[in-house]
Amino acid sequence: MNSNEIERIERAVSELDGLLHSFDSLHSLIIDAAQRIEASIRKGGKVMLFGNGGSSSQAQHIAAEFVNRFLKDRVALPAMALTTDQSILTSVANDIGFETIFSRQIEALGKPGDVAIGLSTSGNSPNVRAAFNVARSLRILTIGLTGRSGGELAKCSDIEIRINSISTPRIQEMHLLVGHLVAEMVEAGF
To answer: Which of 28, 85, 133, 145 is the most exposed place for a label (fewest CB within 10 A)?
Structure first.
């Protein structure tokens, strides 16, 4: 075994362990998000999730936990990842601009009482921010999963769940934990 690889593993595990130990500061935000999502679904609302790169995959993963199941069999819950339709993404990016790939979908699919969950490790993704601006104008609850300083997304999120790290991989790992916890809590209500 190479000592550099072992050190790399230990450093990542140590950083993740530190984030988990500071996680209690997020408990009330996670509970609030889950309760508000459950209330939205009960009133006929849906959850729309989106992000770029790895956050795009996270959005798809979390949406699947709602639609299919998380820990138990139950009724399907309305959620969608706005990152999956290549025709919409590429036509909007080509005709209007990449900054509008999510906001255009929020405009077309969102309605008051829905929930928009945007994932951005920096909090500064222009297309996530633009989607939140449209969502808020439509009275759609915005939940930002961020990292670092929270960036611009911190200013336009109704609920911001910020992972206090500058490491993109650690932030993404914690975003998945947050998504799983929210899915578990919402599922418990059904």
So the answer is: 28
